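Consider this:
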Amino acid sequence: WMTGCMTLALNVADSALKNDLVGVAVHAVAPLLLIVTAETGLAYRRAITAAVVALEAKQQAEREARERAATERRDEAARRAREEREHAAALAREQREHEARMAREQTEREAAARREEREREQAREEAEREQRERSEREREQRERDRERREREAAERAERERAERAERERREQAEREERAARERAALLSAGPATDKLPEDDARAIVAAARAEGLSVRTAAELCGWSVGWVSTRYAELRGPVNGVPVDLAGTSH
């Protein structure tokens, strides 16, 4: 632009001094074109420079955006990786805690099972001990009951034996008393005038022998011969056919 102005001044200076307007106009055309061209080129250069600056700014912004996006992606990737690591660590920690809790619960269950088993065993032993003690008490009670029953049975048998002996003694005494009365009744009739029936004669002979009378006296009382009475006395000295003579029965 400065060059064009200087060229314009030099070209029109001579014509201007001469007041040659046409010459001024003619000689001003070239410098003016140069000046216009120079100004236009400057505007173009400014526009291009502005465009280039804008493009570079845009490119710089895009680079910065790409870099920022890349940074954000790296940061996001790092964050995600960190979160994944933290999540994996949390999962591992939870897994360890879960395994520890499961192991602890298993240990507690086993301890509880052993404790329950010990309690059951103690309860079983206690029940067995109580059963043994109860069985022993029952056995002792049965033994005492058996001894009591045996003692009562023995006492009852002794009482019965004593009662039976006493009853037999009384019956024997009654029989002897009755026999004595019967003998006395038989012997109180005195000597027989005739030969008595054989059953009556046998009864009198038995009564006479029991009272210790002689054979002759017995013969007089029954009216039978002395030989027959002697035979009866011999028979009365021992059992007849293995059965002792019952004087009371004989008297009947």
Q: What stands out?
A: The CA atoms of residues 60 and 239 lie 164 Å apart. Residues 240-252 have pLDDT under 50 and may be disordered. Residues 21-187 form the longest helix (167 residues).
